[in-house]
Amino acid sequence: MSDQRIARMKRACPTLTEALQRYVAEVSIKKKSFPSEKSVARIWLSSRFASKSLARITPMDLQEIRDEWLQEVKPSTVVRRLAMISHLYTTAHKDWGMFWLDKNPVSSIRRPSVDDGRDRRLYQRIRLYGVPAEECPPTEFEWLCRATKSVELPVIALIAIETGMRRSEVAMLERERINLTNGVVRLDKTKNGKVRYVPLTPFAEDALRVWIAMRGKVVRGRIFTIQPGSLSKAFSRARKKARKEYEALCKKYGRRPHPAYFTDLRFHDLRHEATSRLGAVFSPQKLASITGQTLEIMVRYYHPKGVDLARELALSPLGKRQREELRQRKLALA
Predict the structure, then answer these.
(1) Which end of the chain, N or C, is more open, meaning fewer C-beta atoms within 10 Å of its C-beta?
(2) Which domains, from first to last, does the chain contain?
(3) Which SS3 state, helix, strand or coil, does residue 135 take?
């Protein structure tokens, strides 16, 4: 193909707006992350490059907007925005016949480094000495349940804590996938597309049994009505309200509030909590199968408490043997 023809095709290249509209309609709509991709697309459509031809967007353009965004949002958010445009160029080149778009500008810039590792777990011993438990529940979970107006959030949060299921997996649970007789849930719509079986703890099984009974005889379909996005918002509202109520209680009794309670807590942290609890029951291989993670990724979710590890060591054959040796030494010295 002649250089002149390639130049004519580049001049007829669609704008970022036109390309994004086609991408969302043909590619994003097939993804499970469709709602979030629509949101990312809106960000790009409101950028100063929206009316610019795909062929004229340069790495320098993307560097500028990357640096601007880093002043406003987290690196992980910027990475997701750049990833969408990168895939847009790949799709245009390979699937839409724009073979002359041989240079993806995103591949020529450095993406922000992301550290998504978290070790936040639920606090289980919230105490104000002299204040009865009726006024000051001992766990963050109880405070959250008391603070929310949603009737579904406490049940969903409990199931997440007890099973390690993702936000969307719990919110979209279907009655026909729940086997209360054997205490297991079958998940067909998972993040990696593979069917997963999740065992139910007695608490999770009881919560589901009670909830299903309250809703009447539901044979098929979803057992919750709340959407995953709305679930995160409801959780955030409950967390903020719980913090205010906790601070008000501390003020009432002249106590200093603990700075960590109800702060930096996300719904996804309930998955960390569940993984850490179930890690004391299942082997790493079985735990990875339950949570749907690889062994490498699962390390980011398993955060045992130091006191639990110390107790496990003390009760292990090694701990018992060493304690017995110390006892014998003391007897010999007596």
Answers:
(1) C
(2) 3-108 (1.10.150.130), 140-303 (1.10.443.10)
(3) coil
